[in-house]
Specification:
alpha/beta; Rossmann fold; six-stranded mixed β-sheet; 7 helices
């Protein structure tokens, strides 16, 4: 579902793809979330910048220090991020990572911001605030632009 995003509204725009931890952790399931999101946006944007908030990096690092599946997934995600040309952004004061992502998405004016997430709660908040996002549709094993 396109969620009201017209192709002409973004075709000649520079888009910023804000990466959320939940989408990055899908790498452990064999899902290249960033590449899939870029594929969705390439037909709509003239250029796509990958944006990683410091809070997301910190959250991944904290998970990576742990054991179990999430720890492994976080280490894989951090390794993949090292290969990508991401723009690291220092966020302003916020309590939760989701709040930082929302605040950044609402405050940026020079980019058409699209958030990449697999978190349904975050997606609902983004929808309520009219922030475009790409969400993981688990039952169909693909991402969808809203």
């Amino acid at each position: 579902m396109d969620g009201g995003l017209s192709e002409t509204s973004l075709k000649h725009r520079i888009c910023g793809l804000v990466l959320d931890t939940s989408a990055l952790l899908l790498v452990a399931e064999g899902v290249n979330s960033v590449e899939e999101a870029l594929e969705i946006l390439r037909s709509r944007c003239s250029n796509v910048k990958l944006i990683l908030l410091t809070e997301v990096t910190q959250e991944l690092s904290k998970l990576a220090s742990g054991r179990g599946r999430k720890g492994i997934a976080a280490r894989l995600a951090l390794a993949e991020l090292g290969k990508l040309g991401v723009e690291k952004i220092e966020s302003v004061d916020c309590d939760r990572v989701d709040d930082c992502i929302l605040k950044y998405s609402l405050d940026v004016r020079n980019l058409e911001v699209v958030v990449l997430t697999a978190d349904r709660k975050l997606a609902k908040i983004l929808r309520e605030n009219n922030v475009r996002h790409i969400i993981w549709w688990k039952s169909r094993r693909r991402f969808v632009l809203w």
